[in-house]
Amino acid sequence: xxxxxxxxxxxxxxxxxxxxxxxxxxxxxxxxxxxxxxxxxxxxxxxxxxxxxxxxxxxxxxxxxxxxxxxxxxxxxxxxxxxxxxxxxxxxxxxxxxxxxxxxxxxxxxxxxxxxxxxxxxxxxxxxxxxxxxxxxxxxxxxxxxxxxxxxxxxxxxxxxxxxxxxxxxxxxxxxxxxxxxxxxxxxxxxxxxxxxxxxxxxxxxxxxxxxxxxxxxxxxxxxxxxxxxxxxxxxxxxxxxxxxxxxxxxxxxxxxxxxxxxxxxxxxxxxxxxxxxxxxxxxxxxxxxxxxxxxxxxxxxxxxxxxxxxxxxxxxxxxxxxxxxxx
Length: 328
Ligand code: ATP
Fold this sequence. Notes:
Layout: E1 7-12, H1 20-33, E2 37-41, H2 44-50, E3 53-55, H3 83-95, E4 100-105, H4 107-120, E5 124-128, H5 144-164, E6 168-173, H6 180-188, E7 193-195, H7 203-215, E8 221-226, H8 235-245, E9 251-255, H9 267-285, E10 291-296, E11 299-304, H10 305-310, H11 317-326
The site of adenosine-5'-triphosphate has 17 residues, from helix 4.
């Protein structure tokens, strides 16, 4: 039976992440391949409320697979949080004959999509785009792998200075609620200790570990701190704490900040984005809705958006153990 979906909109919403452009390209090209019309919405839900739409054909996404950020721009929209704003958005979609949309974003963007779907029975599919990797229903979100490579690269550079001057560096990485970036990049960059929101390492243990490493002859150390680490101290407070309790250390702080979000997407993120975009369009044409495309055991899977929002990702305990062993 022919699908009722003849025109699909695609947009990016919330914080940008590398791989979003590759996902837009994939949605647009899959629509072209399957002879479905495609429309790009600028600035996420804000553009939907304002009617900021642009038809997209296969050639409109030339040379974007390698670009960070998002050509469709992203925004946070307060008006879409109101029933009036969502009504306006719905009217704009209907006026443009749009039958369904693909939203590329994080859990906030998915919450908006789910509410909209409930109110208007409008077909929606989500693609997880966030560097934090904090979405349930997928082992990887778009941008996570690139962010890890960016962080590891930055820490490698910091290590040059740390070892030249026998210093201890606290490096703050993104992760208010989850420590996936800190843990993975920490192991990848050979960090001495990794402080994450999920586990309370304890300040005593940190001091013990630093004492031990000094004794064992290490000349420099790197401690990775996720923004929301469980010690309750930020990097600057940690620096003060260690300097007070272990004056042998010359401590420096580096906050990586927004550079973690930018940059050329890794090959992994480009491939993942391309696969997810195809699946998202196919799912809509199969009559599916209110689902998020994810990847597990290298297979694409569909998870109800509600579950993706409400579920929690788990920190990899095995990786914590590996990190402990490596810091011997
Ligand atoms: P990030 O991972 O960067 O935080 P996100 O997708 O979670 O990305 P948010 O800023 O939380 O980003 O959400 C993006 C947009 O989704 C909001 O600006 C708003 O327009 C819409 N949105 C979020 N929550 C709701 C809600 N409860 N009702 C309606 N719309 C919402």
